[in-house]
């Protein structure tokens, strides 16, 4: 029998167009090196984006808009995603495409409003009395069903919790046993139980068990410090949209905790303007009291020229409300018609909205920059480029067609080279792959040359 090694516990990630983008790649003083965070070139645009990130972090940017313009494939979407990476996971980032507003069921402005509220976070801090520790014992005690029959019911649960300080045995109500089962708590897990509500939260598995399996999807946490019974600060990050959805069918009271408790219960009711106003009022109240903190996030609208005049009018107003996120637009259009009108405007955006935007441009790349981007992409896609000639061949293709086309050729070309039994890509393979596919310009030229062959 052959015994095989478990190769790796790292998850294989799907490779997407922007998986190499890890951030803006700025130094501590905010200057951009030629290459950093997976981005190449565009130093000025990256530095400007860095300033925006700073403004967002110190909350001075709310209600403003940023517009990223530039040609096709010049890295606008990549730059916006880099901003998202820089902001981290605690700041909400809600991406959408202009065309998403068109639906036969929901109003355009309703879609925009929903995305606006998805981009505004709320951090709620609470001091809770909890029992926290590693589970060392979990025994449900059964009794005869008092209603007769053969079934047994759980009368109480005995649970032992251990921390660095010591251990404690608790006798719990049977309803808490249900929550324990729901969270799939077993011996060796670190959990906390809220003292007043009995809610159970599984934090992770105690790291004593970290070498239990070779391959798993567990989060290991250290043994909690302090006593088992203590006060603990619990931080929850939610967005206004989460609260809207959770309270679309009001059931509980109108305090922040019952609003939070509505979350996770599926309801499908329309979110009305009135409900939103009510939630805004409660949220503002809690912000004033210092219970909650507002975290304005980012709404990223790609291909913004697809929005129409009604959406733009709405955006003008929404940007000025006091609960507004930072809005980032991106477009590759030049002078064009504003959708829904016959008015021409730069980037297809009405001038009054344009006036509220700070604009960042992403220009074309130099040959050297193209070569570096191709090398980065090759590494991400696992394609081996051994010598310089193949990089030059790809860069030539990119200069003749587009950067995107050249990077998209990488994998087909590596399949061709694999068929030939090579372990790395050569300029020959690039040429062969290039001859198999048409880039946008070549395809358009072909159409122009033989229009009679196509229906038009
Ligand atoms: N400066 C850069 N550094 C590294 N990779 C880049 C850079 N700019 C663009 N790319 C990569 O090139 C590809 C095309 O860029 P991107 O999709 O951002 O273009 P875009 O400006 O959004 O184009 P479009 O207008 O067509 O939407 C992506 O895979 C992107 O990650
Ligand atoms: Mg794009």
Automatic annotation (TrEMBL):
Pfam families cross-referenced by the UniProt entry: TIP49, TIP49_C
SUPFAM superfamilies reported in the protein's UniProt record: P-loop containing nucleoside triphosphate hydrolases (SSF52540)
The enzyme's E.C. designation: 3.6.4.12
Residues of the AAA+ ATPase domain: 62-351
Subcellular location: Nucleus
InterPro entries per record: AAA+_ATPase, P-loop_NTPase, RuvB-like, RuvB-like_C, RuvBL1/2_DNA/RNA_bd_dom, TIP49_P-loop
The entry's keywords: ATP-binding, Helicase, Hydrolase, Nucleotide-binding, Nucleus, Transcription, Transcription regulation
Keyword match Lipid metabolism: no
Any GO BP: regulation of defense response to fungus
Catalyses which reaction(s): ATP + H2O = ADP + phosphate + H(+)
Chief place where the protein resides: nucleus
Gene Ontology terms for molecular function: ATP binding; ATP hydrolysis activity; DNA helicase activity
Cellular component, GO, one term: Swr1 complex
Record-stated family: Belongs to the RuvB family.
The protein's name: RuvB-like helicase
Organism of derivation: Chondrus crispus (Carrageen Irish moss)
